[in-house]
Structure prediction request, 369 residues.
Amino acid sequence: MQLRRRFLLSAALPLALAFGLPAAPLGAKEMPESQATTEARKPNVVIIATGGTIAGAGADATNSASYVAAKVPVDKLIAAVPQISTVANVRGEQAFQIGSESFTDEKLIQLAKRVSTLLKQDDVDGVVITHGTDTLEETAFFLDLVVKSDKPIVVVGSMRPSTSLSADGALNLLDAVTVAGSKEAIGKGVTVTMGDYIQSGRDVTKRTNVVPNAFFSQWGPLGMVVEGKTYFYRTLAKRHNTSSEFDIDQIDSLPLVGIVYGSGNMIPAVYDTEVQAGAKAIIHAGTGNGSVADYLVDKLKDISAKGTIIIRSARVPDGFVVRNAEQPDDKYGWVVSHDLNPQKAKLLAAVALTKTSDTKELQRIFWEY
Ligand code: ASP
Prediction:
């Protein structure tokens, strides 16, 4: 924290001079020259842009929901927030220019490989990924599982385009770069920095599709970023990044995993369609505690007996699915997703299936990640 404060003071000097403020803040001259030079090194952060609302533009300032996402290129995004240059040396890369609903496994793998390559470089201290908010939580979790680096990786989006009244993208981006360049964020896992909060990419989910404060973690945020400083209050208890057994350098494709959404009066044939399409696992996004309707139980038992993994998750946003409650998972050879929502369970299943299809091993992985 001390180092960071000194860095901010030195970064603020040119600004202070420009505005006629005292050039040497108290304490600055106590620092020996060589130490000052080392401590003042700004972190190097690469911003990888993928599109989304943070790169969106609307026809009018009142358009908070009707606008075109994925329009503004990365250099313009960076140029629009000149304060970033006081926090870090940044450069941008345009990976994609898409709405995040159009992410595919191929794009996810391509992005993760690029992040992994960048973070192996000594001259890169952290990476920020600008992203649409729809599937932001999925990309963040995927990177958390497969990028073997402790350096900060921050995924950021915005709920309003830059053209909108009370646009949230500029501050979110500045905060994301702050976190990506901060020593405190090292080893904390992939984070999502939006609305002043630092959330765990593993835990966070998009909870509403209109207002800015859209991201929520049922276990609480990791911390906050306020006026250029990070404040961490908890750490992620689950395996991630360097403690993960998965490595994007070893992954070139992901097996297909489907999700079937639970409700009353379901259509059993949907599960068969998933199997016929090649799904290696099906996430049953059940009601309540991942419940399975009585008229579906034999169908799911049959599917898992023939080799497609059944994973019970829940459509309920919080809490977690309890193994062997509601259904005898041990007896049927089913897996439970624990607290992972269906879309995150789908990703973990796909990543885990690159190594094993043993249901006991898969369940261990679901407990540990
Ligand atoms: N549909 C957009 C996307 O996910 C929404 C957003 O960015 O907020 O790319």
The CA atoms of residues 87 and 178 lie 6 Å apart. Residues 2-18 form the longest helix (17 residues).
